[in-house]
Structure formats: C-alpha cells, structure tokens
Amino acid sequence: MDSSAASAPTTCQVARKINMPQMCIDGLSENWLFKYLGANHWEMLCRGLGTDSTHLQNEDGERLYASFVRIRMDAARAICAFRENEHITLNGQLQRYGNEMYFSDFAFTSQADATKTIQAQLMTIFSVRASSGNQKLLRSEARQSNAGITALKTMPAFGQEYRKIKLQKLTSIRLKGHEFVLSDAVLFEKEYRLNPYYDVNGVGLIYFAAYPTISDSCESHYFNTLHPTGKRWEQQYFTLARDLLYYANCELSDTIIYRLNQVEHVDADTVCISSSLYRQSDGALMARLFTVKGLSR
C-alpha cells in the first residue's frame, strides 16, 4: 500500500512496497512504473487546481484531459534490479509554464539500496476532443485557477527540446550519455492490433503507459527472430533509460504500425534503440521512442 507523507498540493512523498502487481519478468514493470508516475503527476495537478479530474473543464465547459507529451526516465541500474518485497520511496514536484504546460520531476528510490534509483521527468498539456473520436485532440486551458502551482519564468529545457524536435529543428537527442540521431529509416516494421482490455484508458484513449509496452512487444519480435534459439530478448535486456515523445492518439478500431529506426550496440552489455509508432489509417506519427537497454547479469 501507498503511504503518503506530504501535504503540499504540488509535491508528493510516497512510500510503498513492490509486490507481484508491480512486477514483470522477475523485476519492476515499466508499464506499472509509467502508470504510477502518471497517476502521481495527475494527483498533484488536480490538487494544485483544487478539483477532481472528472471536473476539469475549459471556459466552454468541455471536459479536459491531461495529455502526456513527453516522459523521460533514467535508471542508475536496469529496472530489473528492483525486486519483490522491496520498499521504495517516490518523491515528486509539479510546476507549470504559463497556463498550458505542466512539468513534474520524480525520484523513485529503493529504501535499502541507494544505487537503485530512477529519475523521471513528465510533461503534460490539457486537451479536448475535437469530435467524438480520438484522432484529433486540441490544446486547451483549465478554467480552474492554477495559482496554487508554482510558475516557472522560462520554459524548461525538457519542453524546449520537445518543441524543437516537433518542429524538426533538432537532429539528435541525448539519453544517458548516448546520442540518438533522429531518423525515419526503417530496419523493421510490424503491425500491432490494440488490446482494448489493456491498452485503453478510462476515457477511451490509448493509455500513455501503453506506448512503451507496444513498442517493446514489437521490438522483441524483431530480436527474437534474429536469434530464434536461446534465452528470449525480453529476459535478457531491460530498460536503463527511455525518452518518449507523444504526438497523437488513435481509434480503438485502428492499427498501430511499429517501425524500428535504429539499433546501436554500444558495448557487450548496452544497446540503444530508436523506434516510432504510426496510425495505419492515415500514417500520422503517434510517438518517437529512444531507449537504452542493458543486459541483465
């Protein structure tokens, strides 16, 4: 169970124990971690605005959604290092830039071993559905006062970099000391059919935490096909760092096209992977993912 120990609306300090629901393949589940970080970002945001998520509206009375546009996590050790029954502490803080962009910083740390820590940054905007579907989400602002959330004087580099990449004014990105060159090259492509019981959130949108899981599922098919014998890819390589830039959502009836853009084996234990997700219906880019994975020893 979670044990909250902070009262400030835009900070959090939570202690909990990792059990089976938080695990995957003998270690911490990255899917659960994304959901957990996102939930705490949401809670701080709603506390700062003084409302529940279901009551978030713009000036026109339209329901608002906090849309994640970028998430970066960097682990000191691969996430498989976190084990069953391990006690962790999550510390977080939320700030805003203007009335549209909200940034959170988290430290996810083992209480018994300080070398097991994950630093994460999350960025959201508010959006509304332009129609009954999921393909067009428009930026908007909450009508609730955000005076309770600390305002930043300048946009964080985390947000500036996202904008430059979206505008194609940046040709590379660095993650955990490694440089990723932005590329649309296609080494491998695979269709992914959405699982509505797992990939979709409570308002019918593709869950932001599903994007890395979809990518990993398709990625593993590629590497397991290259090496059909021996231990599976999923049991060998675990996430050390991930930078995920979100651009679009899609209908439940649509199909996602996964594209593996680049693979670089940095050394015997480390691999850098660039990948992207597209909507099959119109070819729209949904996300870019930059991932560093380490070999489990």
How would you portray this structure in words?
With 297 residues, the protein is of the alpha+beta class. It folds into 2 domains: 1-154, Thiol Ester Dehydrase, Chain A, CATH 3.10.129; 171-297, Roll (Thiol Ester Dehydrase, Chain A), CATH 3.10.129.10. It is 16% helix and 40% strand. It is built from 3 helices and 16 strands. It has helices spanning 30-49, 157-166, 210-226, and strands at 3-4, 11-17, 23-24, 27-28, 65-75, 87-97, 101-110, 117-129, 137-140, 172-175, 178-181, 188-193, 237-246, 255-265, 270-279, 285-295. The strands form 3 sheets. Strands 1, 2, 5, 6, 7, 8, 9, 12, 13, 14, 15 and 16 form a 12-stranded antiparallel beta sheet that branches. A two-stranded antiparallel sheet has the order 3-4. Strand 7 (101-110) and strand 8 (117-129) form a beta hairpin. The longest helix is centred in the first third of the chain and has 20 residues, at 30-49. It is globular. The relative contact order is 0.15.
Question: Could you give the distance between the termini?
Answer: 30 Å
The helical percent reads 10-25%
Number of strands: 16
According to CATH, what is the class of the largest domain? Alpha Beta
User: C-alpha Rg, in Å?
Assistant: 19 Å
Q: Characterize the biggest β-sheet.
A: 12 strands, antiparallel
Number of helices: 3
> What is the 3D shape?
globular
